Amino acid sequence: MQFLQPHSWREALEARAAHPGARPIFGGTDVMVDLNFGRKRPETVIDLTRVPEIREWNREDGLLRIGAGVTYTRAITELGNLLPGLAMASRTVGSPQIRNRGTIGGNLGSASPAGDALPPLYASHAVIEVASTRGTRRIPVGQFIIGPKRNVLEPDELIIAFIMPEAEGPQQYAKIGTRNAMVIAVCSFGLALHPESRSVGACIGSAGPTPIQPRDAENFIEDVIEEHDLWESRAEIPASALDRFGVLASEAAMPIDDVRGSADYRRHAVGVLARRTLTWAWNEHRGVAG
Amino acid sequence: MKLRLMVNGESRETEVREGESLLYVLRERLGLFGSKNACEQGECGSCSVYLDGELVCACLVLAGQAEGSEVVTVEGLSEGERLHPVQEAFLEAGAVQCGFCTPGLIVAAHDLLSRNSEPTEAEVREALAGNLCRCTGYEKILTAVQMAAETTP
Ligand SMILES: Cc1cc2nc3c(=O)[nH]c(=O)nc-3n(C[C@H](O)[C@H](O)[C@H](O)COP(=O)(O)OP(=O)(O)OC[C@H]3O[C@@H](n4cnc5c(N)ncnc54)[C@H](O)[C@@H]3O)c2cc1C
Ligand code: FES
Ligand code: FES
What we know:
A: alpha+beta, Uridine Diphospho-n-acetylenolpyruvylglucosamine Reductase, domain 3, 2 domains, 12 helices, B: alpha+beta, Ubiquitin-like (UB roll), DNA polymerase, domain 1, 5 helices, binds flavin-adenine dinucleotide, binds FE2/S2 (inorganic) cluster
């Protein structure tokens, strides 16, 4: 095995282009498990931790551009106020040891349907920036991830950053697992209210081959809010509409039975999480606690 | 390939294979057996060390990623024969049975207390969620961390 450690983005892209079979590594929390168990022995590993460009985040054209190498710990401490949904999701990841190393870029690279960073990205319509020596392209997260552990990265491409708007309203993330920490989600739900564009973003995690945006549920609740003029009045969303939102979300799920939970349980739980996260977020929009 | 790093304040250099982990380097190349090897998948925390000041699982760091870095293991917390207050507290509280999980827990507890000198029980549980112990049932470990919080300057 060959170990490469580029010190700039340009060098990283050149290394990637020269070694299409190479495996990039950042926090290593997925890659090292594979290496330690001899599951995958790549001929070359490219360590991206020394590339300053992908550890940074900044504002660009009114949006946040966040380097792929930003860890969960940093998402919590540095971005908690700007992206509360992503910070909530980050708090549910693994343990302090995992959050100190694991990155959102790595979560996108692994593209697990249970990846906790993903639903908040979907709920705020994040765009993933990938690059190779051939150039740069930006791909909406929902088109970036195309199947269980599959994304559209070409063999010569690297993820440099993701781009998403700063929160303009309340955001929530809820996850079901067998313990409070160190668990892969049985299922999860991310939600973001966008009062300026008068829209609601939602995403189901770990109940389908990819994270799923429940569009019928989103459209339904946007219509209800519009119809009753709730963005301005900040009145309660009728309980029947909250229920319906949960039902539509659970209908959008495509869960399977596995060791972590049955399909039926997951479908039910998605509905519960959808209703809850919307209730919490809407209460925050209304300025009432809990 | 050659790997250079600072371990517990000492500069070290060793030959490593590209695919091995920092944990392997610490134990098998540098003879530091404090950090334990149990799961090699980030689940048990028995390999917890500081890498450039951050608590990490050494089993999940690829050797080359530590080039030029500063590593502190459980061996680096005591001052000679004088144990660190976190270590004292573990002994005092009876938080050590077989002792396999202890080094990792000590480093993780040390990290918590350096960030939060008066953690609540919930905060201790959260901070130690990545460290497994098969023996103690955790109660005495929680006691030890609270004791250490009281005695750590
Ligand atoms: C004990 C434990 C608990 C965990 N708990 C959770 C959890 O609760 N929730 C969760 O979502 N995940 C969890 N994970 C999985 C893992 O921590 C996350 O997927 C994490 O986001 C991976 O990030 P990383 O930087 O460590 O990635 P790495 O392991 O370095 O890489 C992951 C993948 O992405 C690729 N990659 C990384 N960076 C780039 C880049 N810039 N460009 C292109 N490809 C890239 C790699 O080649 C690899 O295929 C856990 C893992 C462990 C070991
Ligand atoms: S051996 Fe590293 S976490 Fe278990
Ligand atoms: S004391 Fe034996 S594993 Fe913790």
